[in-house]
Design brief:
There is one protein chain. Helix 2 crosses helix 4, helix 2 packs across helix 5 and helix 5 packs across helix 6. Strands 1-2 form a two-stranded antiparallel ribbon. By secondary structure, the protein is mainly alpha-helical. It has 8 helices and 2 strands. The relative contact order is 0.18. Strand 1 and strand 2 form a beta hairpin.
């Protein structure tokens, strides 16, 4: 299996992309359009101001959002593509009742990304893939993961700075 990413890169990327606050921010902007800065806390009341600030800083540092002059926070092209990836992952998880039949949207995405991560990492020294087996969906559901996996690989390949360690610059 040829891999584009190291285990550390996959871990960093999934840690970022599976962040509940980032998922909420990206999908909210994707669903409803530009959010004026002063409306962020009212638009996403389930996130603390700290979570919201960190999500905005991370999204900005990784090129997922930008501040549009005189309008507010909007998705960049990579941010819109990430929203599409989130939709595909959530649809897969819902179709296969993963991780549970009733589950929050962001939790479905986090679990799907966690499930995909081991298949993106290089093989271990003994030649076996570092895949987990406990709590995984059946063979049919795993085979159905091909599309979300391909989209994730394509997105990560097109957005290499997400796999690198970036400390977002604090906003004033």
């Amino acid at each position: 299996m040829t891999t584009l990413f190291t285990s550390a890169e996959v871990r960093r990327a999934v840690e970022l992309l599976a962040s509940r606050s980032l998922i909420r921010l990206v999908t909210e902007i994707d669903d409803n359009g530009v959010i004026p800065p002063r409306r962020l806390t009212g638009t996403l009341p389930d996130l603390s101001s700290h979570q919201l600030r960190r999500a905005c800083e991370a999204a900005s540092a990784h090129g997922l959002v930008r501040t549009a002059p005189s309008s507010g926070l909007e998705l960049t092209d990579p941010g819109a593509e990430l929203a599409d990836l989130y939709d595909v992952a959530a649809r897969w998880a819902r179709r296969h009742a993963y991780p549970a039949p009733v589950c929050e949207f962001s939790s479905r995405i986090r679990h799907a990304l966690d499930l995909l991560a081991p298949s993106l990492a290089p093989e271990r020294a003994d030649g076996r893939s570092p895949r987990r087996t406990a709590g995984l969906p059946g063979d049919e559901a795993k085979a159905d993961l091909a599309r979300p996996r391909a989209l994730l690989i394509q997105w990560l390949a097109g957005n290499p700075r997400v796999t690198r360690i970036l400390e977002p610059e604090p906003t004033a």
